[in-house]
Design brief:
By secondary structure, the protein is of the alpha+beta class. The chain is built from 11 helices and 10 strands. Helix 4 (about 75-85) packs antiparallel against helix 5 (about 90-110) and helix 7 (about 240-275) packs parallel to helix 9.
Length: about 400
């Protein structure tokens, strides 16, 4: 008996094509008109979030019984890519909702947890934004050196600590939070919890004033004796590090999708500009030096795109993506930085102003080398896998 053929990397099914095109249309009609206002105000328009729920973008992989689309990580990738072509800040809200907030609950949650929270996160019974809280101010890349503690008291879990760099923190109502319930056991004491914004002792702290993706909220979470019911422990006590790692592996595919979307958006803007802009009596697009820069950027972006698609396909097939996920995230973020830099320069002085989209794509691209594991951490992961 032969194995079933794996899905082709470079082609999309009819369903995927229809979905991609629908999201592309959504990005043009619903996201693009709001981009500059959201950028200036530093927040996502609540009406856009509502539209994302109505479009079915906030629970793409979730089973239909919970209000999801019953889709795949590949479909999440396509959605994040298409929205990122227009505004990566809007895309990251969709990305985090699907890959970091919903995924661990859908994968590791109890039947009761799934029945309670997934319909809230997909828009079936409510329209609640989710967030993922692992990072802390003192841990950084050493993600499991958590200072946040969890202890049992009166049949509940009590959480104390601070979380930093939490995407969707300002809007989220459901949080997947990691704390150490047994510090003596090191990372094997880390445990996951599902925390609601309204739980006693929970509050959202400072909102960061960022270089890029400014509309996306990045906040501190303050856990001051947060009371969490026993039934909200996510997975076995002491197994939170496994859940966190698995979740981040898929999350890196989402960041890769964001980066290839940013690169494609910058290329599209630069292409349109150089066709119109004239110097020395002809359009910039007629100069071979300009053509070659654009061609190189497009080639690298396509290579990154295939890496991201490959990682998504492999994850959907149940294969290990520790290495390929790290490679896709690393390379796509590098390509996005190079591409947006080139495209900004093709705009000349105009590229340095906020009247044109190049400078925003340039700023938005930088975060790809930092969050969900810095580039150095991706290199470390790849090297470790090669040398083991």
């Amino acid at each position: 008996m032969t194995d079933a053929p794996r899905p082709a990397l470079t082609t999309l099914s009819d369903e995927e094509l229809m979905f991609r095109d629908a999201v592309a249309g959504f990005a043009e009609s619903e996201v693009r008109p709001r981009v500059m206002t959201m950028e200036k105000e530093g927040k996502i328009d609540p009406a856009l979030t509502k539209s994302c729920f109505e479009m079915g973008l906030m629970g793409i992989e979730v089973a239909e019984e919970y209000g999801g689309a019953g889709g795949s990580l590949m479909m999440v990738t396509l959605a994040v890519e298409e929205i990122s072509k227009v505004d990566p800040a809007a895309a990251i809200q969709v990305d985090v909702q699907n890959t970091l907030a919903i995924y661990p609950i859908a994968t590791y949650g109890s039947d009761e947890q799934k029945a309670k929270y997934l319909p809230q996160l997909t828009g079936q019974s409510a329209s609640k934004v989710g967030a993922y809280a692992l990072s802390e101010g003192g841990s950084g890349s050493d993600a499991f050196a958590l200072a946040t503690r969890a202890r049992k008291a009166d049949g509940k879990w009590i959480l104390d600590g601070r979380k930093m760099w939490i995407t969707n923190g300002a809007e989220a109502e459901v949080f997947v939070i990691f704390a150490n319930a047994n510090p003596e056991a090191g990372y094997k004491g880390i445990t996951g919890f599902i925390v609601e914004r309204g739980f006693p002792g929970f509050s959202v702290g400072k909102k960061e004033d960022k270089l890029g993706i400014r509309a996306s909220s990045t906040t501190e979470l303050i856990l001051d004796g947060v009371e969490v019911p026993e039934e909200n422990v996510l997975g076995p006590v002491g197994q939170g590090y496994r859940i966190a790692i698995d979740t981040l592996n898929g999350g890196r595919v989402g960041i890769g999708a964001q980066m290839i979307g940013v690169a494609q958006g910058a290329i599209a803007a630069a292409t349109a500009y150089i066709k119109e802009r004239k110097q020395f009596g002809k359009a910039l697009a007629e100069f071979q030096g300009v053509q070659f820069q654009l061609a190189q950027a497009a080639t690298e972006t396509e290579a990154a795109r295939l890496m991201v698609y490959n990682a998504a396909r492999m994850k959907d097939a149940g294969e290990d993506i520790v290495t390929i996920g790290a490679m896709a995230k690393l390379f796509s973020s590098q390509v996005a930085e190079r591409t947006t830099s080139i495209c900004l320069e093709l705009f000349g002085g105009y590229g340095y102003t906020k009247d044109y989209p190049a400078e925003k794509f340039y700023r938005d691209a930088k975060i790809g080398a930092i969050y969900e594991g810095t580039s150095n951490m991706q290199l470390q992961t790849i090297a470790k896998q090669l040398l083991k």
